[in-house]
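User: Quick sanity check before I run a bigger batch. Here is a single chain. Can you write out its predicted 3D structure?
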Amino acid sequence: MRPYRAWRWAWQYLGPVFGLFSVSRVVDLTFQDAAVAGAAIAYLLMSQKVIWVVLAAAAFFFSLVEWLHKNTPLTIASTHMELFIESPDGRDARVVRTQEIRPNREDVTGYQAKFWADPAVDNASIPEDSIKMHVDHCLPNEQDHMIVSGTEKRWEVIHRFKPIPMPFYKLGLNKVRRVERYRFLNSYSGEVEWYDALVLNMYRYKKLQLTVYFHNTNPCPIEKCKGYWIARHGVVELNVGQIVGENGRLGVRLTIDRPVRGDTYRILWQNETPQVKLSIVPATAPAPPA
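Assistant: Done. Predicted structure follows.
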């Protein structure tokens, strides 16, 4: 398994080189020809025409970026979802979601968030007064959140704020930090528990991190923690790493580069002192959005 994984990782870099070599053999391109072509390109870049090369590259780059994000107002550059188990039995937990978001147009004034408690547990809930949201490009009195619909089982919220600035000198790459907090009650007390992130189709993601911090009196050993990528066409086991938070608090982390929209990523663990017996973990369990 590991040799195959190493080969699959290496081939993404070796493949293009081998492909170019194969094409060169088809068209009889020698190393000397490639060197001549490289020298010509270097001369072009060093000549007075270099400014036109830069302008052409910039024009093509911004046109491509505009085309790629035409129907995507926001890009999620990174999302870090942290679950803190605050009681030994897992009945009290809080979530902190920290995002770096990049506007793709100048009139972005809000973010839609959805999150829900485990529907399989009758008394699991997310209290409305625990929902807090903040974005760092404007003052607290210049933003708020509006409950669109929901109950303590499931919420749909729009975080409203003044337009995210897009300074020209940042070439459309300006990012702001958005933080979201809420609590889970009666949700993580089973023998086997899991924390999911569903990558919504409406946003473009670059990086996703999931972290679970256990209560100091009931940490889960790393060998009893698993990471999963639940795709539409299969399930892949992922590596999780152990981390140490504030005050020596143990946790596990799953990091995903370029997560797939519409898929679910999961951290699963075993409670040493479960309050509710669970023997089967449903693969279709709803996940809070990333």
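The chain has two domains: 2-68, 74-270.

User: Great, the batch can go ahead then.
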